[in-house]
Design brief:
The chain is built from 5 helices and no strands. By secondary structure, it is an all-alpha fold. The chain has a domain of 50 residues. Helix 4 runs antiparallel to helix 5. It is elongated and about 80 Å long. The N and C termini lie far apart (70 Å).
């Protein structure tokens, strides 16, 4: 379609573009028919579900769903996203509003 709208149709290198693309489509068509694409997709889905199940407890700890306090959850999440050096800069303003003598100062 782009070729039809082009003003310089003669400058299109047919062997490099069109022939290669047709050959690539033929390879994909044979691969899809010959190999079990549905089973490969199901296997990849199983791998991703296993990865999700493996990371669920750790992410729950980071985001405070296992009884971790808000300050600890914030520091762990900040450590993941901004790094160990910047975490105190992010957490310090939050600690001023945490009740209790532990963070007074």
């Amino acid at each position: 379609m782009v070729w039809l709208l082009s003003q310089r149709r003669r400058h299109v290198p047919w062997r490099r573009t069109v022939a290669d693309e047709i050959a690539l489509q033929a390879v994909f068509a044979v691969a899809i028919q010959k190999f079990a694409v549905q089973q490969a997709g199901a296997a990849l889905n199983d791998v991703l579900i296993a990865l999700q199940d493996a990371t669920r407890p750790d992410s729950a700890m980071v985001f405070g769903h296992l009884g971790v306090g808000a300050a600890v959850g914030l520091s762990k999440a900040a450590n993941v996203f901004v790094g160990m050096v910047e975490v105190p800069l992010l957490v310090k303003p939050y600690l001023a509003h945490v009740p209790g003598p532990c963070f007074a100062g």
